[in-house]
Design brief:
It is a single chain. This protein has one domain: Ferritin, CATH 1.20.1260.10. The chain is mainly alpha-helical. The termini are far apart.
Length: about 160
């Protein structure tokens, strides 16, 4: 394992956290690409507002991915953030490529944001249980951002 810059964690804890960080990293990369897929293809009333919102959300997700990747390296691991790694290891449902209407994209994105948010909270709890409060705090920060963006997206959904 490469050099760690955190010296109060056992090797097995660091390895577990690196694996967990990489798992959520690939999910986040997958979600960035889903958001951009929607951004490029949405059609319908409210287009420009949602189109611009999705660009902002993609930027925030990239920032979150960066935090997780850097933490994995700080712990002595290797960030595994290629498209190939994301494709092979994501736990999110594949994003539909045949939808265009805003409502369909909002529903599909909201589902994936809620799924990632739940997985981030699980990761936060796991990191806390093994005593890596730094990683737990990172997952807390990322989960708050994902939850807020789930709200931003879901608030565009017409309730029936």
């Amino acid at each position: 394992m490469p050099r760690s810059f955190v010296d109060n964690l056992q090797d097995n804890t660091r390895a577990q956290m690196i694996e967990l960080l990489n798992s959520r990293l690939v999910d986040t990369i997958d979600l960035v690409n889903a958001v951009k897929q929607a951004h490029w293809n949405i059609k319908g009333p409210g287009f420009i507002g949602v189109h611009e919102l999705l660009d902002q959300i993609a930027d925030r997700l990239r920032d979150s991915a960066d935090l997780m990747a850097e933490r994995a390296v700080i712990l002595g691991g290797v960030a595994q953030g290629t498209i190939q790694a994301a494709q092979a290891n994501t736990t999110l449902q594949p994003y539909p490529l045949d939808i265009i209407h805003i409502e369909e994209h909002i529903k599909a994105l909201e589902e994936r944001f809620l799924d990632l948010g739940a997985k981030l909270r699980e990761a936060m709890a796991t990191a806390g249980e093994v005593g890596d409060e730094g990683t737990a705090d990172l997952f807390t920060e990322v989960s708050r951002s994902v939850d807020k963006d789930a709200w931003f997206i879901g608030a565009n959904r017409v309730e029936s």
